[in-house]
Design a protein that fits this description.
Blueprint: H1 2-20, H2 23-46, H3 54-70, H4 74-93, H5 100-118, H6 120-125, H7 130-155, E1 159-161, E2 165-169, H8 170-190, H9 197-225, H10 240-261
Antiparallel strand pairs: 1-2
Helix pairs in contact: 1-7, 2-3, 2-5, 3-4, 3-5, 4-5, 5-10, 7-8, 7-9, 7-10, 8-9, 9-10
Length: 262
């Protein structure tokens, strides 16, 4: 019930901003979500004994998102400046060369993982019928996540990737894929009736599969750092990163589908 109530409060806010908010308001929503997820990422990484550069990571994540928002070409400039900035930061503030590469690599990974992948939602929102495209993808991933959760709890028997996440099952993954398929049907009818149902269902299946890899990727991160949830900000759901892990992987996949196949 806690899980349901949290979703009932959060979903209308997100949908309202996506559908009726200005581009700037949507950017601020994405930036806020990315900031929360990045904080959780760096807190988890710190549990391994490698601090990274959390404040610099937050700033770099925001600048990366700003590049996506203002002009995607600026992302290339960001990519050219990020490695030397990280190295210079280490050189000025740290002394232990044995963890230097870990600190730099963990920070860069976190920024690209959360800010870089999250930035694709700004590109999707800015293309064509952007608001409906975003809502279509949210429907696909949310229904897939719900189906995987309850399908796995009810029918789960065989582990999907036991070394990464012992509780995830093949049955849950199959249920999640079916949920994403239904999300494609619903999304086509409600948000994208002008697009062929074949394209909608194919995009839903592709994003559903890749979204599950995103879920497993975050499970690997939690397994590595020894935590059950990325945080506790969302009652019944865990942290922000727990809720957007599938979306982070699915967003770039959906953008590429729109860009190259539509």
């Amino acid at each position: 019930m806690t899980r349901v109530l949290t979703g009932a409060l959060a979903v209308p806010i997100v949908v309202g901003i996506v559908l009726y908010g200005s581009p700037t308001l949507f950017f601020l929503l994405v930036a806020l979500v990315v900031a929360g997820a990045a904080r959780e990422y760096f807190e988890m990484i710190a549990l391994t004994g490698i601090e990274g550069f959390p404040w610099l990571g937050q700033i770099m994540s925001f600048l990366l998102l700003l590049g996506f928002f203002l002009n995607p070409g600026l992302v290339l400039v960001w990519g050219a400046l990020a490695p030397p900035v990280l190295f210079a930061t280490w050189l000025l503030h740290e002394k232990n060369v044995k963890v230097a590469l870990d600190q730099i690599a963990y920070t860069l990974l976190g920024v690209v993982y959360v800010g870089g992948l999250g930035g694709y939602y700004l590109l999707i929102r800015d293309s064509g019928d952007g608001a409906h495209l975003v809502l279509f993808l949210l429907t696909v991933i949310w229904l897939g996540d719900i189906a995987a959760y309850y399908g796995g709890r009810t029918f789960g028997r065989r582990p999907l990737a036991e070394t990464v996440s012992p509780r995830k099952t093949l049955e849950g993954a199959a249920a999640g894929l079916f949920g994403s398929f239904l999300g494609g049907l619903v999304g086509n009818f409600v948000f994208l009736p002008e697009i062929s149902i074949v394209h909608c269902l194919l995009a839903a299946i592709i994003c559903g599969i890749i979204g599950q890899f995103g879920d497993l990727a975050e499970s690997l991160l939690k397994r590595h750092t020894g935590v059950k949830d990325s945080g506790n900000l969302l009652p019944g759901h865990g942290g922000i990163l727990d809720r957007i892990d599938s979306l982070l992987f699915a967003g770039p996949a959906f953008y590429c589908y729109l860009r190259f196949l539509l």
